[in-house]
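User: What would this chain look like folded?
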Amino acid sequence: MRGSATKQVGLFAGYLIVPLFIASIISLITFQKFEPIVIVFLLGLGICLALFTATNPQTVGMIFRTHAVRNVVVTTIIVISVVGIVVLVNVLATRITVRVDTTKNQTFSISDSTVKVLDKLSEPVKVNIFYSTTSASQRDSAIDLVNEYKARTDKINYQIYDLQSLEGFTKARDMKVATDPTVVVEQGTKQETAATIDEQGLTRAIINLGAKVDRRVFFVTGHGERGPTFNSDATQGDGFSMASAALTNNNYKVDTLDLITRTGGDKKPVQLVPATDILIFVAPSSPMKSEEIQFVTTYLKQGGRAMFFYDPANLLKSNSTTSINDILKQWDGAPKFKEGLVLETDPGYVSPQNPTVLIPNVEATQNITRGIGSNQPVVYAISGSIDKGTDTTGFTSLLTTSASSYIKTDATQLSQNQAAFDAQKDQRGPLIVAASYETAASVSAATGATPTATATTPTPAPTGNGKTRFVLFAGTNFASDNTSVGINQGSNFNLFVNSINWLAEANDAIVINNKTQDTSPITISKAQDTFIYYSVVFGLPILVFFIGFVVWWRRR
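Assistant: Here's the prediction, encoded as structure tokens.
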């Protein structure tokens, strides 16, 4: 009786072998590691196998002697192998992440610039995402973006807060969150709110956590210059709102400066700091007063920096001015703008549709142009040229035209559409259309002739860094909002931001590029269009008929 009972227990254990085996496999796939439940199933499987084998040796022997059981064993081994492979693939898939972005501009990947920022992180950064039910989609986009950052470094983590919950409301109040949705990054006791919930905004916020110096960029106004806002006047897209946004996204504070009142956009007095401030002159179309020129000159000679734009269209205006040249001539031998319009005749340097839309040669000689133009060209529409002057020590050419180009300098000929080269008046290329210039600062606040300071007209602050820097562009469109030849075309964005970084001596600064959904339309000629039409309308039916005829003929 005792042996019979033991045998029955063994048989019962045998009935449990298959269910325990299946349960073990399922639990392993589910948990992907040896959780307690997995260990219990495996131990149970082992005990049942041992009991069944020990109490029913004859049955086990008979089972393995039959042909059917051998097939079952082989099948079981195959199933176990397949299941093992599936488990292994799942484990590898969870531990090894492979990202492939096939879009032209890597729209769904973070840029190399952001990766550089993440590589420099020395302390953990927490990203706080605040949202409500009305901004759930933006919350998901923010989470996807932060996960891209997390994939690059272990120093990024995030937490989500629902503004409609008590915890979220309290945290938002503590962090002074005012909009929905909002992303706030914090590192230790420091925090920064992302201006936009995208890569530019998030990366800039991370950069600002460690920023030690506020660098300001002022668009000079008061003389018909283009400003940092969108201009919807007759000349479509000639504003610099995108350029302004690019600077903001790259950790610069952007404002305007009225040279008459010395005030910013908020009408408050501005105290210029030569070591950190940059002035941008975008094609002034009316003369500057002598005191304005003196003020700018003093600021620059104290080690200030400026970016000058020339617009050839001013040549055709009755109030054409050389205000920028009036500033530049304060330095002996400094470069200056040559008034006129550059026309290009070399097909390799110009747009096939318009000889005034240049594709200039990029002189990759310094930080401004390093890496620019290798993949995408600079699109440079409607340009004058630059005379490099006699002081060539600090002069660097950035963009040049071909030897086949020339500059028209006669306003009368231009107004009458006389574009042919005039050997008596015009100058042949190569022509310089963008350049940089660096010279030693020559004035200090203690000894220099600075404008008299008042409550509304403060003088430039001293403490320059010993260098005066200029960047000159003989055209304005490349950095404008123009959709066809503006800042979002080719390498224009990087050229503009790199120039600002060079002026600020921030050569290790991060350039966070705009990402646009580019399309690549196929342009076909009239002959190709005709070929495609007749091929589809007549060619395919004739081909089908011919194949059918051949088949019929062979069968016949």
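Residues 2-95 form one domain. If you want, I can go into more detail on any region.
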